[in-house]
């Protein structure tokens, strides 16, 4: 049996005092690809933020990559995030340094010290996303799709057990979205677990996976119809 990467039982997600989602029970196994869908404001991002410790879990039980979200302390959050790869809609690359140094910054921040090992890791993750020749470019010299590939490469630096992608194609045109999705699909095919929040239904139809919908404060699995 594949190991459980994420387990939620009777979880409620709050933002300040507002109840966003209620009665969430969900299990994600190693190697799964799961979409989180729903309208803007339905709670997708709040759900993702709860998984990486940005919103504290106040109600229910939650475990992510062996961290208990209910008892998670502030000083444990960096250790949780080292076991996660997080990809945002807006890339979040540092504009004042080239791609290699963007990635080096993350490695140093997470405790890497050996320069040769850092160089090898940077080359490895850039190769995985088809950006091996772009390390000396600055973010503004890259297209949106290329920047998102770099953001995905960055999420792979510490060999995460789970990748959380929050609307990773939200700022991209349809063709570029498909290219970025292909990269995520290849990463999933290599055995990594991915949870992706999206409202891009064309991608879901093209790359069908388990799909969880946020609607009316609830989360439930939707069965995709064959097209």
Outline type: globular
CATH T-level topology: Rossmann fold
Content-based structural category: alpha/beta
The CATH superfamily is identified as P-loop containing nucleotide triphosphate hydrolases
The ordered H/E elements are EEEHEEHEHHHEHEHEE
Determine the strand fraction and express it as a percent band.
25-35%
Give the termini distance in whole angstroms: 31 Å
CATH class: Alpha Beta
- Major sheet, described briefly? 6 strands, mixed
Work out the count of structural domains.
Answer: 1
The largest beta-sheet arranges its strands as 6-7-8-3-9-10
Q: Which stretches are low in confidence, meaning pLDDT under 50 for 5 or more residues running?
A: none
Q: Which range best describes the helical content: under 10%, 10-25%, 25-40%, 40-55%, 55-70% or over 70%?
A: 25-40%
Keywords: ATP-binding, Nucleotide-binding
GO molecular function: ATP binding
Domain ABC transporter: 6-226
InterPro entries: AAA+_ATPase, ABC_transporter-like_ATP-bd, ABC_transporter-like_CS, ABC_transpr_LolD-like, P-loop_NTPase
């Amino acid at each position: 049996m594949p190991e459980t990467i994420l387990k939620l039982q009777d979880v409620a997600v709050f933002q300040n005092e507002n109840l966003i989602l209620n009665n969430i029970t969900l299990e994600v196994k190693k190697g799964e690809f799961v979409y989180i869908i729903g309208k803007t404001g339905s709670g997708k991002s709040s759900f993702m933020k709860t998984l990486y410790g940005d919103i504290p879990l106040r109600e229910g039980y939650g475990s992510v990559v062996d961290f208990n979200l209910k008892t998670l302390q502030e000083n444990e959050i960096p250790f949780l995030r080292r076991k996660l790869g997080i990809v945002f809609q807006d890339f979040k690359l540092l504009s004042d340094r080239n791609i290699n140094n963007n990635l080096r910054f993350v490695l140093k921040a997470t405790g890497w010290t050996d320069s040769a090992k850092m160089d090898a890791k940077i080359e490895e993750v850039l190769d995985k996303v088809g950006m091996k020749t772009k390390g000396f470019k600055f973010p503004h010299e890259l297209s949106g799709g290329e920047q998102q590939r770099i953001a995905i490469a960055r999420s792979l630096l510490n060999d995460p057990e789970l990748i959380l992608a929050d609307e990773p194609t939200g700022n991209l045109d349809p063709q570029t979205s498909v290219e970025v999705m292909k990269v995520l699909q290849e990463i999933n095919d290599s055995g990594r677990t991915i949870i992706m929040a999206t409202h891009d239904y064309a991608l879901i139809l093209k790359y069908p996976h388990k799909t969880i919908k946020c609607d009316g404060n609830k989360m439930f699995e939707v069965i995709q119809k064959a097209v």
